[in-house]
Amino acid sequence: MKRAGSIAVITGLFVFLAVAQAMAGSYGVIDHVKMKALVDATERNFILIDARNPEEYQEAHINGAINIPQKKFDSSLDQLPADKSTMLVFYCNGVKCGKSKKSATRAMEIGYTNVYVFAEGMPVWEELGYPFYKSADYEKPIETAKMKPADLKALMADKPDTVQLVDVRDPEEFDEGHIPGAINCPLKDFALQSGILDKRKKVIVYCNAGGRSYKAYRKLMRLGYSDIGQTLFADWKEAGMMVAR
Questions:
Q1: Are 113 and 18 in contact (CB under 8 A)?
Q2: Architecture of domain 149-238
Q3: What Å distances lie between residue 72 and 68, 79, 102, CA to CA?
Q4: Domain segments of the chain: what residues?
């Protein structure tokens, strides 16, 4: 009974939001809490759309999602419901990914009135441990682009505006000592905080020995970052480089 009441409240909330967004002429944005509630509901009364490319969808996607790549949206309209009041929820690779937003905008342009974007996307869904489909190759090891301390120091000195250095350790470790110029974005909620990362710059992640920064590197790949690197704090200290506190 309690579950049924919760579902009714959620449904009522989305009906209200749908009316408001239709009047405003824009799509709504939902977070992972609302997305999880929708996916877990006994009756699924919405269409979940993965706006990424087919290769990304085949590698991993939220259970129950269909794939309509953003670039093929207009040629895939037959996959959308005829009833344009049906709730549509789009997602892609996180807050810096524009595919879901472009698809949602296009859906409203052609008349759909109940449109949302799960802006945190697939990376946050995975990070929070929610269930999702993944292929056999999803955990396949990758080779990271490693950077030596001397090269990193030179890059940050010569072209500081082109690089963003990210310490993925816990805040306590960061406070005890970190590479000068680094920001702290702990691995445990790396995707959740990815809005602070700049896609226009080379993003370099590091931790003490490489385990956490390796995982952060993978997350950057899935967030759609292309110019990324990895270094080690242990190597930085061993090379006698300055440590900030």
A1: yes
A2: 3-Layer(aba) Sandwich (3.40)
A3: 7, 11, 11
A4: 2-134, 149-238
Question: 2-134 — its CATH code?
Answer: 3.40.250.10
Backbone angles phi, psi at 81, to 5 degrees: -70, 150
Letter string b/e over residues 85-104, b meaning 16 or more CB atoms within 10 A of that residue's CB:
eebbbbbbbbbbbebbbbbb
Q: Can you tell me whether residue 58 is helix, strand or coil? A: helix
* pLDDT per residue as tens, the chain (245 positions): 444 454 444 545 554 454 445 444 699 999 999 999 999 998 999 999 999 999 999 999 999 999 999 999 999 999 999 999 999 999 999 999 999 999 999 999 999 999 999 999 999 999 999 999 999 999 999 999 999 999 999 999 999 999 999 999 999 999 999 999 999 999 999 999 999 999 999 999 999 999 999 999 999 999 999 999 999 999 999 999 999 99
32 CA to centre of own chain: 11
Residue with tokens 């702990």: 186
185 part of the active site: no
| Residue found by looking up tokens 């296009």 in the block | 106
Which is the catalytic residue, given 92, 97, 185, 207?
207
